[in-house]
Every structure is written in structure tokens, then in C-alpha cells.
Amino acid sequence: MIENAHRWTLELLDPAGGAPESFALGEDRIDWEPAEESARWAAVRSGDYSPQEAWAAPATLRPIGSAQLGEPYASGFEVLLGSNGKPAFSRAFSTQYFKKLAEEHAGLWMRSGRLASGDLFRYLIAAFRQDERLVPAARRSASIRTLPPALTIEEPAAELARHPETESVGPDDAADPPVLVPRAVLRETTEHVLSNPEKESGGFLLGKFRRIPGSRDVATVVTGYVPSRAEGTATRLSFTPECWTAARSAIALRGSGEALVGWVHSHVIDALCAGCSEEKKRDCPLAKGFFSEHDRSVHRIAFPRAYQIALVVNLSGGKTTHSCFGWRDGSIAERGFHTDREPQEEATCPVRE
Amino acid sequence: MGQATALRIFANDVSGQKEAFISDAPHDETVGSLVASLVADLRLPKTDPEGQSISYTLRNERTGELLQSSSQLGEVLSPDDRTTVIPSIMAGSARR
Predict the structure, then answer these.
(1) What is the pTM (predicted TM-score) of this model?
(2) Each residue of B40-77: pLDDT tens digit?
(3) Is residue B75 in a domain?
(4) What DSSP element (H or E) covers A143?
(5) Does the residue B95 lie in any domain?
(6) What is the DSSP letter of A269?
(7) CA distance, residue B71 to nearest chain A CA (Å)
(8) Contact between chains at B49 and A297 (C-beta distance less than 8 A)
(9) ipTM rounded to 2 decimals
(10) Span A153-340: which CATH code?
């Protein structure tokens, strides 16, 4: 667990020039785990740490003082991994990390009339040193520890991301952990969701990890898709305890040392847009793929590893497209992936009648 | 199952990212009560984005059973059993 010796506050600035308002961000309000996870995986991607070493190293939070405003204001924070016999490693995060919390507090201002819908607002983050170190409270005699991901990193292989024989799909950010999703897997996901195109469906992505040729970076190579019996409606997909148990059994049955690297689910855009005109449907941003608040909640709870991704299969206008989401700097964002080249049009096929 | 008055239990979250070790879970404590404290210990969310409660179920990894919340720990777990706290959660295109 990460060690935090600071008390953090969020200051909302009034666009109308009124007095700012400060909100204390208690330990139960700030979710530091995605930052910790991101830092530990970045250490693995640096090539200096194995996963076991990265997760064994003590992690500490340190604010980065604002050069413009001076302390206690922060322009971000760092997660420092203790050396533990290895070179020390740090990863910096901007105040963007607090955006969701800022939006929640701005919602309070909206309710009180200080902000109107569409108003732009700014926020500042401040950190105050405390004498006593804050560690997450553990009740009764439970002791909590974070576990390293159960994975091994294999030697480079030719089919990896950024290889000339792969192509990029979606927004390409060089800082994102590289992911290769073979076209055959994309096809399997498409066939699965098209077997029930009126309702959402989904499943799990399995994969392995390999060093990228000529680099110390690590790529996730998706090696299989396990369809889930998660129950869907036109706009919802429920993952029950039985779904998670079945997925775990499927991974064990395959017996090839794969890790759970992500999940897949469909969005039946045609159902969402049933009442819209054809012209409106053509320009509909939903058709290009999105990640709902419920999707984010599932990803945060069940897929918190920095390398884990979510593929969304969009069923819209008789076609299917894939969008990909994953962790970037401790937040969930749309991201790209690599797939192997194929002569036909990528990731698109007609919806079956 | 076991004879001692308290059980040692390990519990993981569904992602396998976090593990709680309980050294003294009473035999007569219910699974539901243990799950409630594990949700707090593991800092798992109690509600979904719409504010609805998220329900969690405890799975005994040794037997593969999903445990009833009214069962007593001494009836369904043995010392040093490994368990997983598994959520029922919803994804989907419905936007808040």
C-alpha cells in the first residue's frame, strides 16, 4: 500500500471572480491505487524491475510543488518506489488526476447556483505535510497488501506491437502500454456479440507479456477470448459471481499460463438510437465508441492493472467497430491498440440478419 | 469444520490485486458480516455510479463454492482457507 505523509485539499476557483472554496480530500476520497499501479507497471516497462521487484518495493507519495504558485500548491505528485536494492524509480502525475473529484465538487457549486451548466471552472490542488504518516485504516486485525500480477515476461517475438507487420487502431499514444490484439481475436469478439445483436454481451481477454524487440518495454499480446454468459439487455450487461468463476475456470482449463488482460462488451448503438433520424445517427458520437460510468466502474473494480484494457464492440448502422479503453496516468482513457495487417477492411463486418 | 474459536482467512478482491489476511475471524460470524468488513478493508466500492448498492459474494477457493451470506464461517471455511470477494456489477451503454 502506498505511504502518504500529506493532507490534500482541492480549491475551486470561481469563474465570476468570487472567493475560492477549499475542500479537504480525506484518504477515503482520493483513490491512489491507480497511480500506484501505474508507477509499478512503469517500473516494469523501464526494464529495471521485474514484476515481483516492482510490487515488493515500498511506494511513497510526494507532491510536486507548483513553481508558479509556490507551496503548498502542487502541480502534481510523484509516486516513488523505494530502491529495495534496485535503482529508485519515480513516476509523475499531473493535477489532471484529481479531475473527477473536482467535477464532483463543481457539482455542489452547480446545485448552489455558483456554477451554471457549461461554465468552465478551474481548480488547484494543495498538499500539507503531516507529522503522522497516513496509512489506510485497517479494521480489526485484517492486514492488507497489494499483490504483484501473476505473470511472466517472455523474450521478444516478431509479432509485437509497433512491428512493421502490425497496424495501429484508434488513438495512438506512445506512452500507453503497448497492446497487440490479433485480428482473429477481434473476429471472435465480433462473432460472439453478433450472435445476439439485440442485447449487450461480452467476455474476457487473455494474454501474455513480451519484451518489444530493440526496446526494454513490455507489450501485452492478447492470445484468446473467453465469451461470458453475463446477462445482457439492450443497454446493460450484468457480471455475476458465476461469470467471474466461469472465467477463472476457463483460464485454468486452457493451462497455458495466460493472464486476464482485459474484457470485452458490446454497445448496441442501434437500440440506443432507435428513435433518431438516419442523418442524426450518421453523426452520432455514440457510434464512434464510448465508455459509460458503469463501464468505468467495472474496469476500476475488476481490471485495475495498468496493462488491462477494455474493448467495446459498437453495433451501429449494420456495422461493427472496436474501441479500446485502458489506464493512462492512473485514469481511464480511450486508447489505441495494434493488430496484424490483413488485406480486407479492418474490424468491420456486416451485422447478420 | 475447524475446532479453534477463530479462523485465519485470506481474502482477495476479484482482480487479485489486493489481499486481506484475517487472523481471528470468529467461527460464529456470518459470511455476510465478514464480506461487509472485507469490502471496507479492501476499500471496494459500496455503490455503483447510480448510487445502487453493489452486492458481493464470498467464494471459497478450496471448494469452489459461492458461500451463502447467512452461513457461519465455522460451517463453510477451514483454517487458512483462501477466498475471493466477488462483485455483481453492471457494464453497459446506458449513460448516467
Answers:
(1) 0.89
(2) 999 999 999 988 999 999 999 999 999 999 999 999 99
(3) yes
(4) strand A143-146
(5) no
(6) H
(7) 17
(8) yes
(9) 0.92
(10) 3.40.140.10
